[in-house]
């Protein structure tokens, strides 16, 4: 795992912690909500790390091979999300809203990390 990935995952975890604390005041079953957040966070982090691995491997491939490789792995990641979301919906101990919220922080984490890096570069 690269330094960039570690920083992004840490930011994701902070965002998830904020969502967890904020949601605890509005949810009837806080434990189920926390389990949903945890499951969504785990899936989200795994997707992000698998994306990094896929892109790193595809860089050394021929363009056509890289395109097919990236498309295949995209499909596999999306299929995994669907399977895990269906399982999360069926398990009564996992709050579905918590699971969905757990899936969301990847893009904001990437943006926040970009802002932090840009601000650090401007400070030099």
What does the model show?
With 124 residues, the protein is mainly α. It contains 5 helices and no strands. The mean pLDDT is 90. Helix 1 (3-24) runs antiparallel to helix 2 (30-58), helix 2 (30-58) runs antiparallel to helix 3 and helix 2 (30-58) runs parallel beside helix 4. The radius of gyration is 17 Å and the shape is flat. It has one domain (3-122). The longest helix has 29 residues, at 30-58.
**Helicity, as a percent range:** over 70%
- The proportion of residues in beta strands is under 5%
Total number of strands: 0
- Number of DSSP helical runs: 5
Instruction: Find the structural class using helix and strand composition.
Output: mainly alpha
- Average pLDDT reading: 90
The value of Rg in angstroms is 17 Å
Distance between the termini: 26 Å
Residue stretches low in confidence (pLDDT < 50, at least 5 long) are none
Brief sketch in words of this structure:
By secondary structure, the chain is mainly alpha-helical.
List its salient traits.
mainly alpha, flat, 84% helix, 124 residues
How would the blueprint of this fold be written?
Elements: H1 3-24, H2 30-58, H3 63-90, H4 96-103, H5 106-122
Helix pairs in contact: 1-2, 1-5, 2-3, 2-4
